[in-house]
């Protein structure tokens, strides 16, 4: 074969590779994308279950697993090795608990997932809120081990707070996985599984989840991967006839987002990489390379230079995707987490006060919720100090506002209020953009109220 023929042959092979590459991209594009947050009490097995998912879906090879097994054994913590896939920093591995919000990707037959592994310890609830605010669906991990479920579920346990926060932050569908079913204290006991389900259902209902429409229970073992990618063997668990975790996740139905609506992307992080790069999840609208947009609330006009999805450069991206966007017209130091990348024609509002409907769920001991009450506001990727300016109570039996202004509210009350924040922030009315209109108030390390924005003081 002469040089010309070699060049022709190489060109043909190159075209074939390009064609295969394009085919892969087009196949990926037909798969929907969902963010799934793993929540639950500390030590329930969230990171281990997440790590097992990545291993079973081919994201981690056997050699890496062997390395983690040795590392965990050297620490005398043999059962932690799967968690090392998600818990990547030294502090998390040394303590055996998640500190930061972990992030990873995997795919099922029809869906691309981004895992958001939320910390379970009460000291890191703000990180859990950050994960849940980005999520489409949730996996609540519960330990079936004797005593561990009870610790997480009793008052003060993170199972309860995580469920309430997930519902408030827009996690519409919840998979409740009863983990550690292979534990010697459980041994795939149907009685133990049924006991946990029976205790969880009334609480999930009181938190706003519809048992039939929104919640699905599954037994599994995150450590060894049973009932995760394939269904559990009848010899192991003769009473379970439902799906495995991968099947359940792949078939979940979630509300469609509007690709033609005004563009909204809360910024969760930023970096400098040959220009200014912002990261976030597209909540509404579609972004194209070359678009002119606004960074709010500082009203900065920017141009979209490049879009990256899963490290791949793309020309456009639809709602629901996690993307990195390279911008021209703004410096990194002029952007804060909580800012919003917004369309110019219909920009997001920026306010220092807004009206809200609020449910009080957990005031500190002896505290009264009244005008002047100060706490920490969490709304999409914003965290800011806030103060209650005025209150009006709702009648819990009629759900209608009661006449006159009230002076204080107590646990369980539903109130209308006006909230003032320390800095100008971007929010939307809940009725228009639910994901940008839900919020929580926290004080003294605990969630005291959940609410939704009803009006903007522009």
From TrEMBL:
InterPro entries: EFTu-like_2 (IPR004161), G_TR_CS (IPR031157), GTP-eEF1A_C (IPR054696), P-loop_NTPase (IPR027417), T_Tr_GTP-bd_dom (IPR000795), TRAFAC_GTPase_members (IPR050100), Transl_B-barrel_sf (IPR009000), Transl_elong_EF1A/Init_IF2_C (IPR009001). Keywords: Cytoplasm, GTP-binding, Methylation, Nucleotide-binding. GO terms for cellular component: cytoplasm. The keyword rRNA-binding does not apply. One of its GO terms (molecular function) is GTP binding. Residues 31-257 form the Tr-type G domain. Pfam families: GTP-eEF1A_C (PF22594), GTP_EFTU (PF00009), GTP_EFTU_D2 (PF03144). PROSITE patterns: G_TR_1 (PS00301), G_TR_2 (PS51722). It is found in: Cytoplasm. The keyword Lipid metabolism does not apply. Belongs to the TRAFAC class translation factor GTPase superfamily. Classic translation factor GTPase family. EF-Tu/EF-1A subfamily. This protein promotes the GTP-dependent binding of aminoacyl-tRNA to the A-site of ribosomes during protein biosynthesis. This is Tr-type G domain-containing protein. It comes from Aquilegia coerulea (Rocky mountain columbine).
């Amino acid at each position: 074969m002469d040089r010309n023929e070699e060049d022709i042959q190489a060109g043909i092979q190159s075209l074939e590779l390009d064609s295969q590459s394009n085919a892969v991209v087009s196949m990926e594009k037909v798969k929907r994308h969902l963010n799934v947050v793993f929540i639950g009490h500390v030590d329930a097995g969230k990171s281990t279950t997440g790590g097992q998912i990545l291993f079973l879906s081919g994201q981690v090879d056997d050699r890496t697993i062997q390395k983690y097994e040795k590392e965990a054994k050297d620490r005398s913590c043999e059962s932690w090795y799967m968690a090392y896939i998600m818990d990547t920093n030294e502090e998390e591995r040394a303590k055996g608990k998640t500190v930061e919000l972990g992030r990873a990707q995997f795919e099922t037959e029809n869906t691309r997932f981004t895992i958001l592994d939320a910390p379970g310890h009460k000291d890191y609830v703000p990180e859990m809120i950050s994960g849940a605010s980005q999520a489409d669906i949730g996996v609540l991990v519960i330990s079936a081990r004797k005593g561990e479920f009870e610790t997480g579920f009793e008052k003060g346990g993170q199972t309860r707070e995580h469920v309430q926060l997930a519902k408030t932050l827009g996690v519409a569908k919840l998979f409740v996985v009863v983990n550690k079913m292979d534990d010697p204290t459980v041994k795939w006991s149907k009685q133990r599984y049924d006991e946990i389900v029976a205790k969880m259902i009334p609480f999930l209902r009181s938190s706003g989840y519809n048992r039939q429409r929104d919640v699905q229970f599954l037994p599994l073992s995150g450590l060894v991967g049973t009932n995760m990618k394939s269904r559990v063997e009848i010899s192991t668990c003769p009473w379970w006839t439902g799906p495995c975790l991968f099947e359940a996740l792949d078939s979940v139905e979630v509300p469609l987002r509007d690709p033609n609506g005004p563009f909204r992307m809360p910024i969760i992080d930023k970096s400098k990489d040959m220009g200014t790069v912002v990261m976030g999840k597209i909540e509404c609208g579609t972004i194209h390379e070359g678009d002119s947009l606004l960074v709010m609330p500082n009203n900065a006009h920017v141009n979209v230079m490049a879009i990256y999805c899963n490290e791949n450069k793309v020309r456009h991206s639809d709602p629901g995707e996690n993307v990195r966007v390279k911008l021209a017209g703004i410096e990194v130091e002029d952007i804060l987490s909580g800012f919003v990348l917004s369309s110019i024609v219909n920009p997001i509002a920026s306010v220092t006060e807004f009206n809200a409907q609020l449910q009080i769920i957990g005031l500190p001991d002896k505290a009264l919720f009244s005008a002047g009450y100060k706490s920490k506001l969490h709304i999409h990727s914003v965290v800011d100090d806030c103060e209650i300016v005025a209150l009006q109570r709702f009648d819990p039996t009629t759900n209608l506002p009661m006449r006159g202004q009230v002076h204080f509210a107590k646990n369980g009350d539903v109130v209308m209020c006006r909230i003032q924040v320390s800095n100008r922030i971007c929010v939307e009315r809940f009725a228009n953009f639910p994901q940008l209109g839900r919020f929580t108030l926290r004080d003294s390390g605990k969630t005291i109220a959940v609410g939704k924005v009803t009006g903007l003081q522009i």
